[in-house]
Amino acid sequence: MQNTSGRNMFSRKTKLKENIYVLTMYLLLIIIFLNEFFAENSFLTYIKFLLVVIYLLVSLLQNKGFFLYGSLAALTVSMILISFLQLDAGIIVQALNENSGIIALFAAIPVLSVPATNKKYTEAIVAVSKNRKKNSFMFFIFLSVTHIFLSLLLNIGSIPAMQKLIEKTGLNKRFLGRLYTAGYSSYMVFSPFDGVINMILLFSAVTYAEFIPGGIIMALTIVFISAMLNYFEGKHEAIDNSGSLETSKEHYASLIDFFVNIIVLIGITALVNAFAALKEPLLGTALIVILYSFFWSAKQKKLRTYFDSYKIQNNGTLKFKLFLPFIISLGFLAVILSKTDVNILIAGVVEKITIFPLGITLFLFIIIVMGLSLIGIHMMITIPTLALLIDPAVIGLDKNVFALLLLTSWFIAMAISPFVPFSAVVSDAVKTNPVKFSIGQNYKFSLIMALAAPAVLIMINNWVY
Prior knowledge:
This protein has helices spanning 2-37, 42-62, 65-84, 90-97, 100-108, 113-116, 119-128, 137-154, 158-166, 173-190, 195-203, 208-233, 249-275, 281-299, 303-308, 323-337, 342-351, 358-374, 379-389, 392-395, 399-416, 421-430, 434-441, 443-463. By secondary structure, it is mainly α. Helix 3 packs parallel to helix 16 (323-337) and helix 18 runs parallel beside helix 21 (399-416).
């Protein structure tokens, strides 16, 4: 009886934490919405801060292992720096609130899985891949493009969304890790919707129209190299499609329907990002996901499922409780580190490498950013610093190519570092360890890209600009 009573008590406590977790995410979405469209005052600012704190506490109480210790380490180092540097206490409110938008986005993302994971889509993907090899070059490119499309809309949330979509294909962890690295890295060098890209273009005094040719070339390079890596690493085993239907016109029609809906979704997001000028851009994406998912679900006659997805017992946000607090903690640390002298130190080191030939200079530039990410210094610190303090002419690059160099360094460092949100999100999606995924698997991708990227950048510098 005592054991049963203890289990029931533990179950009730777990359920209470999960309820608070989900409700906090929804309340944050509502508060950010109110703050954006109706009122901007200190009361809502502190309510938002309080909700982020509650979210972190409840999440960390449910966490364990790498994500728990990584989050606690980032928060502890941040608080030590605040105390040591005698920063104003208001920086805590600012740093946490700056990361609240991603919580609002992830509160909305699960509802997209209602229409996007329609049985006809998953059957179509499996049917189209029937009799293909797991390491098939074109199959990998097909899925990479699919993931890029989702990334344009959902940013890093595309990874769990894509995983939900293709989980029935039986693809192994190596393939999935390579796929998400290729798709999200490509997104990082050409998306017009991403905050990082727009920040770097602003700092580099570059317009998107000027930048996009080089970005597309680099994205194609990423997908090609990733597909080649996957092909040569594969065992040439066929996907197990036992019981699946033969490929038919209906399957291709379903895939076209899926891509059309994603393209329309991307188009609406682009229009909102271009003209709405929201203080919190991720709120716009979250609202579009909620509304478009409603109409997409209605078209499929799945509105009941759509509304049921918001219920706590069915809520998909619970699967984010491991890595999302880690993302928030790293973002908090990045804001605090930006107030230190580490920026000046990094810029000084990079300027010393310009004495070498251009190809070697670009390689060393990438390696420095990659090395710093491996010891926990996030690209959010190094890249903006380099964008602001390095003159492209000193390196010998056009300003557009310099912006692309910064983004290239970002995704190469992102791929190999276990201390960045990307590794946390992918490892959670494919059920592996962040260190095993980033360093254990992605070291080949990062090293090959670090060697190939300088040649691609020089070619773009000489032939495109």
